[in-house]
Automatic annotation (TrEMBL):
This is Response regulator. The lineage of its organism: Bacteria, Pseudomonadati, Planctomycetota, Planctomycetia, Gemmatales. Keywords: Phosphoprotein. It comes from Gemmata obscuriglobus. Residues 3-117 form the Response regulatory domain. SMART domains: REC.
Length: 124
């Protein structure tokens, strides 16, 4: 199973994500903001990052951009309640490997994670 970093400023969303992902056998670490995400990513090199789009200080699209600079092969699935097409297009253009809507549903999260990890495995 994969090592996953959950980045979300909502403690409730982090708990829900952790419960879903750990329930599927993944190893999960979580952080509440973008700066902590960049630091944790550099230390842990997770297989996948589940990244909230809307956060204070540094939004998820900026975190995505910086992760891709640090590691062009970073696998990032964006999570957001913002269902605007423009947000998804920005995430896709930034190199996101997937997109999952909030509120998080277990089947949607696990499908997006499996698809993103499958693409990563296919590229290697």
């Amino acid at each position: 199973m994969a090592k996953i970093l959950v980045v979300d400023d909502s403690a409730l969303s982090r708990r829900v994500s952790r419960r879903i992902l750990e329930g599927a056998g993944h190893s999960v670490a979580d952080v509440p903001d973008g700066l902590a995400a960049l630091e944790r990513y550099a230390l842990d090199k997770p297989d996948l990052v589940l990244l909230d789009v809307t956060m204070t200080e540094m939004n998820g699209l900026e975190v995505l951009r910086q992760l891709r600079v640090m590691d062009p092969g970073a696998v990032v699935v964006m999570a957001t309640a913002d269902v605007q097409t423009s947000t998804r297009e920005l995430a896709d253009a930034g190199g996101a490997s997937g997109f999952v809507p909030k509120p998080l549903a277990a089947d949607a999260v696990l499908r997006a994670v499996a698809a993103a990890l499958g693409r990563q495995g296919a590229a290697q």
